[in-house]
Amino acid sequence: MAFKESAQRFVSFVNSSPSPFHAVDTARIALVAAGFQELNERERWNIVPNGKYFFTRNQSTLVAMALGGQYVPGNGFSIVGAHTDSPCLRVKPNSKLAKSGYMSVGVECYGGGLWNTWFDRDLGLAGRVMVRDDKGDINHTNVLIRRPILRIPNLAIHLNRGIYDKGFKYNKEVHLAPILTSAVSEQLNASASAAAADAAEPTPKQAKAEAAGEAEGPFSQKDKHQPRLISILAEELGCAPENICDFELSLFDVQPSTLGGPSEEFVFSPRLDNLESSFCAMEAMIAALPTLEADPCARVIALFDHEEVGSSSAQGAGSSLFEFVLRRLAPGEGKFEEAIPKSYLVSSDMAHAIHPNYPEKHEANHQPQMNAGPVIKFNANQRYATNAWTTVILRKVAEAAGVPLQDVMVRNDSTCGSTIGPIMSAGLGIRTIDIGNAQLAMHSIREMGGSHDIKYSIDLFTTFFNQFAAIDATVKTD
């Protein structure tokens, strides 16, 4: 079935993307295979109609552009926006912990995770490492430790009898530190390593490093982190430990994403929020390429980092990054200002499905289901950027695509989340709608979504790219 093929491709995508750096790299590979040319922000761009391009910032944000064959500066932009980051635990800059005979790793909570779900999981490490090469240059290098090297064990019920009466309570600073190894094992490993080192003659490079004191220099990680952690990274990267200058590492559950349910109607996976939207945007951008020649618009997907912590970074949706991109696509006096009112942004981020065990948490007339199509998000207080104008445009796109839509809004006695939609709408003055596929267990280490909804979103975004200009001409407002 077509829905299952799309869902399986997503499963492969999310399994390859345990960090924003890996998500961007996985998207890069797919775009290059589809004929997109990578650009550099620091250089002049030579972009032309029918051209397909992308660039990255910080290796954690990606923007891809396909200029219609009929595009001229001043024409509109058809945009799908999403984000590459998810709540996780990240290794602290000085993570070395030792207590009660265990060697642990200090971590920081990134975003608003359901941290209780991180207990008793098999955890790996992924992210980027800044590695010094033989010339002395320092390079960004992705690293992925897929084997379970870390674990946050629960306290046994025999030592925590009050859990039934008082609930599961934990201190994020004290109780979330994952165990790497035991002091006994570390001592045995250190002894074996020392014996091997004594038996081997130092290489000229090692001797030079020792003589120059490189291992104790400003880039040294030796005293900041567990020696075993540094050695694992060095082994994976194929470099000397002293050439590891810094890193940004996230913990992740090594259990792979998978399809589930009797008919594989569900996706059981980490990072549905929001790699699912990122994947669907990328797939649609590629799927819509056969109609590019006739399109008067510039098609854009923007996959931002740092949405989960407010988007206020150089690579977040709250930065000037995207405005600068659009200005480069619309050179000439007044062309950018002319293009913005003709443009439209689909801000895609996951939505909350009705929970069968907590149905009272949803507003009575707005209870989205998984596998029933993308969900339009409404909030009169502008936590979402959706309005009647942007809604009817998307409904016409959905009608043309044969994709069902749902609506959601929060109860008056519940707080409402937000996403990149209002940030970009206010910053650019662009028409925006907030949508997303329905899921359960958002921000858990293992989330649950509908496998059919992936194809629904791909089809919706593909039709949006194919038909936006024609549909927009049929909706009259300003």
Task: Describe the 3D structure.
With 478 residues, this protein is of the alpha/beta class. The chain is 30% helix and 25% strand. It is built from twelve helices and 20 strands. The strands form four sheets. Strands 1-2-3-13-4-14-18-16-17 form a nine-stranded mixed sheet, with helices on both faces. Helix 10 (388-401) packs across helix 12 (451-472). 43% of the residues are buried.
What keywords describe this structure?
single chain; 478 residues; alpha/beta; nine-stranded mixed sheet; 25% strand
The first-to-last residue Cα distance is 43 Å
Q: What structural class do the secondary elements suggest?
A: alpha/beta
Biggest sheet: strand arrangement? 1-2-3-13-4-14-18-16-17
**Rg over C-alpha atoms, rounded to the nearest angstrom:** 24 Å
**Poorly predicted parts:** 211-215
Largest β-sheet summary: 9 strands, mixed
How confident is the prediction overall: mean pLDDT? 94
Strand content: 25-35%
Q: Strand tally, please?
A: 20
Helical fraction: 25-40%
Quickly count the helices. Answer: 12
The global form is globular
Blueprint (SSEs and pairs):
Elements: H1 2-15, H2 20-33, E1 37-38, E2 52-57, E3 61-67, E4 77-83, E5 88-99, E6 102-110, E7 123-132, E8 138-150, H3 163-166, E9 179-182, H4 183-199, H5 204-212, H6 227-237, E10 244-253, E11 258-260, E12 266-269, H7 272-287, E13 298-304, H8 321-329, H9 335-339, E14 344-348, E15 351-352, E16 375-377, H10 388-401, E17 406-408, H11 420-428, E18 431-436, E19 438-440, E20 447-450, H12 451-472
